[in-house]
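User: Hey, my collaborator sent me this sequence without any context and asked if I could get a structure. I don't really work with proteins. Can you help?
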Amino acid sequence: MTAIDALAILEQIEDAVVVIDAGGAVVFVNAAAGRLLGAPHIGRSFLDVLPTAARADFAGPLASPGAAADFQTRGFGDGVTLGVRLRPTGPHAAILLRDVSHRADADRGKDLFLGALSHELRTPLAPVLMAVSSIEGDPSLPERVRDDLAMIRRNIEFEVRLIDDLLDLNRVLHNRLPLQRENASLHRLLKSAAESSSVEARDKQIRLQFDLGATRDVVHADAARVQQVLLTLVRNAIKFSGVGGEIELCTLNPSSESIELVCRDEGIGVPADVLPKLFSAFEAGDSAASRKFGGIGLGLAVGRAVIDLHGGALTATSGGTGRGSSFVVRLPLAPVGASAAPAPKPAATAASAGTLKLLLVEDHEDTARVLRRLLSMRGYDVRLAASATAAFAAAEAEAFDLVISDIGLPDGNGYDLMRRLRAKGFDAGIAMTGYGREEDVAASRAAGFAAHVVKPVDLQQLVRTIQSVIAQRKSQPRGDLQNASA
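Assistant: No problem. I've predicted the 3D structure and written it out in structure-token form, which is a compact way to encode the shape of the chain:
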């Protein structure tokens, strides 16, 4: 096929095709692209010929010369969603734009379903996890009871991780997995992951051996997501190791610009035919090992996607069945001299909570009862409301320092409640809900909530969030939640 034949074919296809040079200038458009972008366009910056609403979607991918990208944009008009494929071709880059509006509608329906499913699954877990975590702190409990409570908590947390993995997998498939980057110590993240796995390791008498040989370990990364990847690797190593085994956790700097972390176990190993499918969602769940030990193969698939988004790599090797396995995380280092963000401060104690008055808006009776009791034990004065109407009536009757509200309420939603409260001059609110998608967090912020926490709520995290919101409010006071006639 000649170049003229290829150009003729490009002119006939319905998808828009654009070719840009190394400087981002348009050097070719087919007929479909001409209709989409208008004229003139040859020789102009591709970003300049795009609709203003679409430019932000393209700016990031185009800022990385030589990198491929797949994403979607809705910046070409209401109801129009274009799928975009960017591929480097020598000194140029080819951009294909395809109308995927119908598919996008189906995807949005699936997103709404997954969001609702997440909420329904998380909500009943919330009071159980909070109650168990509270009871575990009772020093008078016999060791056997304490172990049973720890088992209950671990299994609830496993269910929560499964829900998170399902949602993250959906985000990965649609290139919508957000990253909240900061400078973080990979050694600190690894130690936290190991500490979170200490009970499982102790139960199987497994030794975690550290060899942190990397002299530089600060990465510019989403600390929470990277730690979750490390937690998946350590817990998998424990799960697939025999009683009394050993797991090595090592780091090194293979170059001045990267760090490698190796998680090596002496466990059941990975058969040669399974290894190529290990990071494919649901594939690993069909293996004999997964049928025996549990799991559906989501954690590794999401983990590889997370590391890929950081410009790194997650790989695995194994000598075969019964010969253990090694997982290697490679990440780019933060610039020389960068320091890690400080570790989170411990949650406030009951004595430091003061006499803050909280309005808790929650229609799930068990969650409301347990959370009220636990917050009261921390020294807070808590009032309950099971609906938006009851919450606003309470706000008219007395003053509150902070509102903590569910989003799904029987007579409306927490967004509208927060807007009504803000109209009265109050802006200290925390959304507490089973909805945890990016869209849900953005909606909370838009409604005026200062923070968004996802059920089942970790009490320590909630107390830290309360203190953070109150501290921010004190530095910028805007009025109390109080009688509307005041």
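In plain terms: Residues 101-136 form the longest helix (36 residues). You can pass these tokens on to your collaborator as they are.
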